[in-house]
Amino acid sequence: MEPADDRPFLVERGPGPLIASALHAGHALRAELAPLCAVPEADRLREEDPHTARLAAFAPNRLVALCSRFEVDLNRPRGRAVYRAPADAWGLEVWRQAPPGELVERSLGLWDRFYQAAEALVAEVIAREGGALVLDIHAYCHRRGGPTAPPAASAQNPEVDLNTGPLDRPRWAHVVEALRTDLAGAGLDVRENVRFRGGHFVTWLNRRFAPRCCAVAIEFKKTFVDEWSGALDPARLARLADALSAAAVAAAREFQHG
User: Fold this and answer.
1) What is the pLDDT of residue 185?
2) How far apart (Å, rounded) are the C-alpha atoms in residues 122 and 62?
3) 127-158: pLDDT as tens digits
4) Angstrom distance (rounded) from CA 208 to CA 49
5) Is 140 exposed, middle or buried (0-12, 13-18, 19+ CB in 10 A)?
6) Strand pairing partners for 139?
7) 131 to each of 24, 39, 166, 176, how far by Cα in Å?
8) I need a labelling partner for 232 at 20 to 30 A (CA). Which of 43, 120, 168, 248 fits?
9) CA angle 159, 76, 180 (to 5 degrees)
10) pTM score > 0.90 for this model?
11) Separation of alpha carbons 147 and 90, rounded Å
């Protein structure tokens, strides 16, 4: 890993075609923005994707955000990457006062740096391996009614939601099915495009590097962390991480077979 210091994201390079990203794993706000942010830290953490960097640890090549999505959302197009209104952020009033234009531009500069780094990494992997398989790891809330309310119904909230909306699905069906089969074999409820279809990052990758890139977003239901207290269930997280690691190996094998 590159040294963390004040970087908004980390990049790791290794062998093979497999790349993992965790775009909402970060919690940091720049010091000049923190006083302007109206969202309490606990609420920010609930809408971020804590511990997804751990879920993404299986891949030799990785992109992991350190900056909070409340500074810049790396999974949205540049024009919507800085939240401006409650409609952008689950109804939350994000700012005590609107950040000055120069602060917004600095945040968008982080978005630019991330996409430059991502482009460089994916291009390197494709040049070396002939293709790149990108798994973009996220987590979603299912207890929005409050800490004592029942969880949302499982019918529309799978434990694992494979987001293949932006994917050339027929071309990469064997890779998606390898992911699905392996994760389901670990006892997980795995479905496709139920809650989400895939954000800007995988959409951009599948367009920018077609036909040699297969980018799939994977949304885990937050069964491994309490959404309201932030308490982690380490055993549950480890189980999910092991299942994802095995499924990624199976998918990479299928990917390399063409």
Assistant:
1) 98
2) 10
3) 999 999 999 999 999 999 999 999 999 999 99
4) 26
5) middle
6) 220
7) 25, 41, 17, 16
8) 248
9) 25
10) yes
11) 17
The closest alpha carbon to 43, from 80, 76, 83, 92, belongs to 92
* 171-211 confidence digits (pLDDT tens): 999 999 999 999 999 999 999 999 999 999 999 999 999 99
4 pLDDT exceeds 60? Answer: no
228: β partners = none
Nearest to 82 by CA among 121, 41, 40, 30: 30
